[in-house]
Amino acid sequence: MPKGQPAAVPDDGLTTRQRRNRPLVVVHTGTGKGKSTAAFGLALRAWNQGWPIGVFQFVKSAKWRVGEERALRVLGASGEGGTVAWHKMGEGWSWIQRPAKDAEPDNPDNAEKARQGWEQVKRDLAAQTYRLYVLDEFAYPMHWGWVDTDEVVEVLRQRPGGQHVVVTGRNAPAPLVESADLVTEMGKVKHPMDAGQKGQRGIEW
Amino acid sequence: MPKGQPAAVPDDGLTTRQRRNRPLVVVHTGTGKGKSTAAFGLALRAWNQGWPIGVFQFVKSAKWRVGEERALRVLGASGEGGTVAWHKMGEGWSWIQRPAKDAEPDNPDNAEKARQGWEQVKRDLAAQTYRLYVLDEFAYPMHWGWVDTDEVVEVLRQRPGGQHVVVTGRNAPAPLVESADLVTEMGKVKHPMDAGQKGQRGIEW
């Protein structure tokens, strides 16, 4: 991506360096592909900086993220960059069981698992356990009302230190988008499934 | 990402398996962040499949992609997944020297370097050197007319074997988008630079 001059310099009392290193809340939302892959791409940069990385996977199925998980585990164990901790919440969740794209999965345990995952994230933020948090698919539990969006916004606003947080998922709630620093909407222009092609290894997982 | 049933099953004479494993041309375009990071996230999946990966970096500056490059080199050398070959074309190119966002850099050598890079990609496609090609920022030389878009479309259409190709960059030309299998438009909703914050390490590079 190009670098250049910011469009406006705010009157916030910060030096350019302080402003530059202000930790970010990043949101990848929209109906297109690339929300999570871009988050894991960011994790490569964080790894290269030697940052501890925490991945919290809020939606799980047998195949998804296996490539990302294995790659990040190999990187974390290499000793050449940051560490990687990979948390899977809600083992056994599956989009496949969903009745429809935006409907809640019908497993009543999922709401509780999502809340437990968020409680873990809160503890880690308070303890400054990681420098980059990838909250993968975390937009969904907020969208479904399982985790309170206003609380998430407030916790992120008050998080200590230099912790960057990336949230992915469709339907990112408006208060989260409003409070985030960097928001990208991945829009679907074209998808192979529209042409009758199912997902394949190496591409979808 | 959710998996499910395709919207339509085409009458193309292929079995589901054949259609499923049909290699893809993927385009990440738009003005938002995440185009390249999502491409490198895809590379993690390809690596996990043991696929040889070829990265062709069509725009270069001192800091960009250093994290991705180092991570992918460590992964490629780990022996636990696919190999990684990283090609930098146009060493010394820099967005910073650009007069404006969509204008051509004023270095006349760049067009020739881009063409040389594309010739290398063509040779590798013909030889089936890689299974995944990341043509990073390759949309620009097409947009600027340095590389002929129609030729690119034709070469991609006729590429042999099971080679997947990802092209990133703003202003992806319409013929490329039309011929691609999977296209995502990364739209900018909000960027820290709008609030006076410059790029920072671990996030932008």
TrEMBL record, chains A, B:
For this UniProt entry, which segments traverse the membrane?
none
Cross-referenced CDD domains, in alphabetical order?
A: CobA_ACA
Q: Which InterPro entries match?
A: CblAdoTrfase_CobA (IPR003724), P-loop_NTPase (IPR027417)
SUPFAM superfamilies under this entry?
Answer: P-loop containing nucleoside triphosphate hydrolases (SSF52540)
Region span, Disordered = 1-21
Identify the PANTHER family for this entry. CORRINOID ADENOSYLTRANSFERASE
Q: Which NCBIfam families match?
A: cobA, PRK05986.1
- Name used for this protein in its record: Cob(I)yrinic acid a,c-diamide adenosyltransferase
Organism (species)? Streptomyces synnematoformans
Q: What is the lineage of its organism?
A: Bacteria, Bacillati, Actinomycetota, Actinomycetes, Kitasatosporales
> What would be the name of the gene that encodes this protein?
cobO
